[in-house]
Amino acid sequence: MTQHPIPSKSKKARYLAAAIPLALLAACGGGSNNSSESTPPPTATVPPPVATVPPITTTPEEPATPPAEPTFATEVARHVDAATKIAGTDALLLDTYKTYYCMFAEDRLDLRTAARNDTARVPLTQIYDDAWYIGNRYVGQYILKSGSGFSLVDSLNNANEAQTYTVPALNSLGMGPSLPLNSVYLTHGHGDHDGGAVYLKNNFAPQILLGSADANGKAYTPTLIDSTDLTPKTINFGGRQVTFLPTPGHTAGSTSAIIPVHDGGRQINLVAVGGSSMPSDINGARSYLDSVERTYVLAKQIGVEGSIHPHPVFDGTLKNLDKLAASPLTQPSPFTVGEDRALRGLAIYRQCAAAWVAKIDATAVIPVWRATKLDVTAPATGSSIVTAKLSSAWGPVAKQQISFMANDTGSTCVATTDKEGMGSCELRTSPIDPKLREITATFAGAEAATYLDLPTKATLTVQ
């Protein structure tokens, strides 16, 4: 079992930087939306990356002071605006993550009702080489296949659904003595997620994983994930190494996961969140926000390129299922959106969770998370001067360091951005082969009183 320490909030900006080289509905049908549990994450110190070559550092003469943030009537509006800015013109992020995660803070009861009532069946749909969705348009489950058998994410609403939908799907995919159903991971203990667990346990005897805080009175006798230990743990789950992270908030025992799958033979990591509905008490809401932040940190540390969700409306899963209904699976899967896009989706999710805290507690002042990007410019012919622009939806990011590396030689240099967010420095090259072939620029992130500029990196292949 591998453990991944998660830092305290005071060290979160540095941890986000160190993680670079490594990387939910009030409509939930089962149970209450309230939770009173709020547990701060354990502290951990993560050393910064060490350059292999002493860097060259250049600093502009008079870098500008970053522009002041605009003012908003409420803290809720400030965080919803930030979620919208992070999404930008990206329809996937704007129409799913921002629309549905922020619907609680924006009082969009119409969206919540429409999502809950959209219960048309979704047939068994292949989403990756070794992963399938089955259920309905409101809630469903995922089937994972490996050389040792099958595993499930959630168990549908009840025994009848498990018998009518899950078992025939597994049989059609080859379940048998050599490929049994061996594992079930329940995102949390509400009935629309664990309703079929007793039937599956009685008929197939899989190991069923559930957060310990949701386990009281469960007849399927789950194997417990300790909800009080917020440290991520990687275990063998159905023949693949899955990292589980307790994320209390939606319920006290909600558990998120990073799940490896294969896309055209290439292994990628997906994030699955443990619950969507945001609790109505302030302690539960703060715990939920903390859980989303820790999920982002873990996703960055491990490196995720996509998302799956038991309630498919939240993260684009439903849109992708509609695409696959119209056209068979090709590679890359529509679920594979890339690390930057996947992390921006989680950053939007975090902003919506922050807006919800502010909705409950009008005195709350919570830093905004601002997604950043780097645009690297190829050096002029014969030059070893490298340049990148650091920016966000809020504008150029000034007075911050950009670290450059020549990936073929390991040489490095560091530049500080000017008022336009531009930074340039000289990378040492080999006298034998002076050409720069691949350049990676990295921004380690920066924290101010009212916002946190998230880390980012970009790689340019020089033609």
Would you summarize the structure shown here?
By secondary structure, the chain is an alpha+beta fold.
Commentary on this structure:
By secondary structure, the chain is of the alpha+beta class. It has 2 domains: 75-365, Ribonuclease Z/Hydroxyacylglutathione hydrolase-like (Metallo-beta-lactamase, Chain A, 4-Layer Sandwich); 372-461, Immunoglobulins (Immunoglobulin-like), CATH 2.60.40.10. Helices cover 26% and strands 27% of the residues. The chain is built from 10 helices and 25 strands. It has helices at residues 12-18, 75-87, 91-101, 109-117, 159-172, 191-194, 197-204, 282-302, 317-326, 339-360, and strands spanning 2-3, 56-58, 121-128, 131-136, 140-146, 149-153, 181-185, 207-211, 223-225, 233-237, 240-246, 255-263, 266-272, 306-308, 368-370, 372-377, 385-392, 395-396, 401-406, 412-416, 422-426, 438-443, 446-447, 451-453, 456-461. The strands form 5 sheets. Strands 3-4-5-6-7-8-9 form a 7-stranded mixed β-sheet, with helices on both faces. Strands 1-10-11-12-13-14 form a 6-stranded mixed β-sheet. Strand 13, helix 8 (282-302) and strand 14 (306-308) form a beta-alpha-beta unit.
Number of strands: 25
- Mind summarizing the main beta sheet? 7 strands, mixed
When the domains are counted, the total is: 2
**What Rg is obtained from the alpha carbons, in whole angstroms?**
23 Å
- Shape from CA axes? globular
What is the helix fraction of residues, given as a range? 25-40%
Mean pLDDT across the residues is 88
% residues in beta strands: 25-35%
Low-pLDDT stretches are 6-11, 17-63
Give the helix tally: 10
CATH C-level of the largest domain: Alpha Beta
**CATH fold-type name of the largest domain:** Metallo-beta-lactamase, Chain A
**Structural class computed from helices and strand pairing:** alpha+beta
| CATH architecture field of the largest domain | 4-Layer Sandwich
The strands making up the biggest β-sheet line up spatially as: 3-4-5-6-7-8-9
Protein name: MBL fold metallo-hydrolase
Domain Metallo-beta-lactamase: 138-311
Organism: Variovorax guangxiensis
Signal peptide: 1-26
